[in-house]
Amino acid sequence: MKAISSMATRHLLSDLADAAVDAGLPAVDIESVGGVDAETRVSAGEPVDLVFLASGALKRLADAGQVNAATVAPVVLSQVAVAVPSGSGEPAARSDSFAYESAEGVRAALRAAERIGYSTGPSGTALVRMIDDWGMTEELGDRLVQARPGVPVAASLADGDVDLGFQQLSELVGQPGVRILGVMPADAAIDTVFSGAVAAASTDPQRAAEVLAFFASDAAAPLVRRHGFRIPD
């Protein structure tokens, strides 16, 4: 059985796939790529059984008939965190605290940063929109540096290409050369729900639905939390 996902959930989905096999479900070969690339490939009819993407992308695929809309199920809620280079090779520790007390703290950090890294996925889009809403797009200019598709912001931080980075918490935890300051404050939170769906091209939609149900079940909750995600409401 084949699946495709965006990069943000790749480590979690790998562990969930192993757990599903232990529970007697079919093995799933999951390819994780940039979210835009994954959506494009599914839209083009690539033969996969399961698709795991941000809910907005899955809705577009469902509307186009590329995934079965009735099977769409939320799997995780992902929060955007703020990070800086650590100057060491130690893996980044998880932090659930707020990076700043309020949005004003985020704006001050943006103004103070020389190079600001953000992702190509939905979290990056949301950050850019927020900066524009704050009227800071022109002020920050080319200090905003978008990571290449499939390249985590953590790598840009560790390599010294940026000195402030915004990325899904799950993409920062455990990465070397990064210090996580915390998640975004409540008045500037960027949360993304990642969902799964059975692809219209699936050769075994019933078994694919069983795997998806396991991924979204209470049995998967400990793994979800361990990877820095939350359970969707």
Structure, briefly:
The protein is an alpha/beta fold and 233 residues long. Helices cover 36% and strands 23% of the residues.
The CATH topology name of the largest domain reads D-Maltodextrin-Binding Protein, domain 2
Mean pLDDT: 94
Overall tally of structural domains: 2
For the record, what is the CATH homologous superfamily label of the largest domain?
Answer: Periplasmic binding protein-like II
Alpha-carbon Rg, integer:
18 Å
- Major sheet, described briefly? 9 strands, mixed
Helix share, percent:
25-40%
In oligomeric terms, what are we looking at? single chain
How would the blueprint of this fold be written?
Layout (H helix, E strand, L loop, with lengths): L1 E5 L3 H13 L6 E5 L1 H9 L6 E5 H9 L9 E13 L17 H10 L3 E3 L3 H12 L3 H4 L3 E3 L6 H6 L5 E5 H4 L5 E6 L7 E8 L6 H11 L5 H6 L7
Parallel strand pairs: 1-2, 1-3, 5-6, 5-7
Antiparallel strand pairs: 3-9, 4-7, 4-8, 4-9
